[in-house]
Amino acid sequence: MANIPMDIITDLFLRLPASTLVRFRVLSKPLFSLIDSPDFISSHLNHTLQTGDHLMILLRGPRLLCTVNLHSPDKVSDVEHPLKSGGLTEVFGSCNGLIGLSNSPTDIAIFNPSTRQIHRLPAEIVDFPEGSTTRGYVFYGFGYDSANDDYKIVRMVQCKGGRADELVFGFPYEIKVFSLKRNSWKRIKRVLPAIQLLFYFYYHLLYRRGYGVLASNSLHWVLPRRPGLIGFNTIIRFDLASEEFEILDFPEVLAHENIDIGVLDGCLCLMCNHEFAYVDVWVMNVGESWSKLFRVTKPKSVDSFDFMRPLIWSKDRGKVLLEINNAKLVWFDLGSKRFRTVRIKDCDSSYSAELLVSSLVLGCRGDPDEVKRREERRAREDKMMQQSSKRDDFLSKGFKLVL
């Protein structure tokens, strides 16, 4: 390999998955420096996003967190992460190969499943407003701010307790944003009055609606209509660059329908469920105009059609991968209107799915504090092994331990 020009090696390495590149770092110091360099990490991510290579599906459930190769569903890998031992971990978003993890509002991390590197966020307490003593619902959002080359997490906490619960227009709340570049939290004080609806008329249908949908450098949440309380749907978005909220316009014909939001090919989309018999998928185009993409009629193999979300186009754009009822993945052929179930090896439980790209974002060294903890743990394990070896050697010579 010493005789191969470095630019050829770089071009070859850009085509490899991140998990392979992590192993290649030990081959030589030049390769170590190349794979760890910020320029290569950025180029590798851009190449993966442009080609669609090494795409995975992240499956998450009450006791399930694993990755599945998009084109080889028999290749399933469990996702192990340091937060897992702390409780029932939530996965609240995926972006550029990273996922957001949370055990509680103060135990949050950004994790790269491809490299197993984690960045634990500094613990940030919930500043309860006067009269509030406990927290209610917590909504999260995770995304990449391309304008500032920064990864950000939004945490919105509903506060309860005392006279605050009697507010006519909603519970008091706290909104904070974490910046990976600054490694710090910032409180958002200027919000729209509509934000109060997010905390009072909270979501009942799907737990996922508490997770922001990333598109066009913004996180989005849908406030669904509730007959007798709210007669129309509202979509709010949080601009990651300006760190401000605003109301998003969408087709008026959908204001009183059963809608949910998602993202397809980087664009925000709306799923309009008509009497749980079929779903129309709309997409927001450049200039924030909307158009209807396609209709999906309930498959015969599905008893109910409570939830449907598109994930990705096939490379020829003739099919689209759909997640149905948090329980199955199917390819939907737009021409024939037929479905093909994606059967995942050893996966029978219910789950929700997220697209995950193979990337080196966060680097291969990881969070310095986490690296230090791992080194200390290894040192303790090595010491215990040495002590155990000495004891076994002592016993093998015919001596008895005196207890």
TrEMBL record:
UniProt-listed InterPro entries: F-box-assoc_dom_typ3 (IPR013187), F-box-assoc_interact_dom (IPR017451), F-box-like_dom_sf (IPR036047), F-box_dom (IPR001810), SCF_F-box_component (IPR050796)
Cited Pfam families: F-box, FBA_3
Transmembrane segments annotated in the record for this chain: none
Domain of life: Eukaryota
Annotated spans, Disordered: 373-392
Residues covered by the F-box domain: 1-45
PROSITE patterns: FBOX
Record's protein name: F-box domain-containing protein
